[in-house]
Amino acid sequence: MHKRAIIIDDERLARNELKKLLAEYSEIEVIDEAANVDEGIQKIEALNPDLIFLDIQMPGKTGFDLLRELNHTPEVIFTTAYDEYALRAFEVNALDYLLKPIEPKRLADAIHKLEEEETIEEGESASSVNKSILTEGDQVFVKDGERCWFVKLSEIRLFESVGNYAKVFFGPNKPLILKSLNALEERLDEKVFFRANRKHIVNLRMIEKVEPYFNGGLLLEIHGGDKIEVSRRQAVKFKEMMSL
Prior knowledge:
Layout: E1 3-8, H1 12-22, E2 28-34, H2 37-47, E3 51-55, H3 63-69, E4 75-80, E5 96-99, H4 104-119, H5 122-128, E6 139-144, E7 147-152, E8 158-162, E9 165-169, E10 176-177, H6 181-187, E11 193-195, E12 200-203, E13 207-212, E14 218-222, E15 227-230, H7 232-242
Parallel strand pairs: 1-2, 1-3, 3-4, 4-5
Antiparallel strand pairs: 6-7, 8-9, 8-12, 9-10, 11-12, 13-14, 14-15
């Protein structure tokens, strides 16, 4: 494995520290560095690296902004000092997140992941990134138009299918993300998030009332007032899960 990498971070000391740590790895060649998003985009487009180490919080634009503006995204390892950003993003297929100050062992794990990616058949690799199950304590990055949220999964009460998109219900917000319910279901913990029917996944912890409904189905009342029907088939599964 040989990866050409660019480090994008507004702190020179942080870039130097990471370069020093990466010097241990002959398979990673740091070909350049950038101090902000615009410079990062220019260098990525000019040099076409295999990998970027990307800070999230930078003056002006964030690391997420950079990824949205790129035409072709290399593999990404986020580096951040903010624990709340140690999230697994729905929309950003990051390979890993390193919290600053970066521990050599965590960097070794991230590089090991890169090597594992290499060994996966090419045909699978794009779809295999980021298949880890999200726990309710994880925070996810939700973007809708110009607005972005970092939301704890435990605060999301409902996902609703809208064509190729999913509407995410939390607090007073209902942004759309470009994800199918099937793709979401694969990543969500089934003990917490339940596929009620073709169009809805509900957070079991947010259910306030369960009533019998037509044809052996159920009607769930969710915190906040939404009423969701559970199909007959899923009602059987729901009762099994919820019984002692």
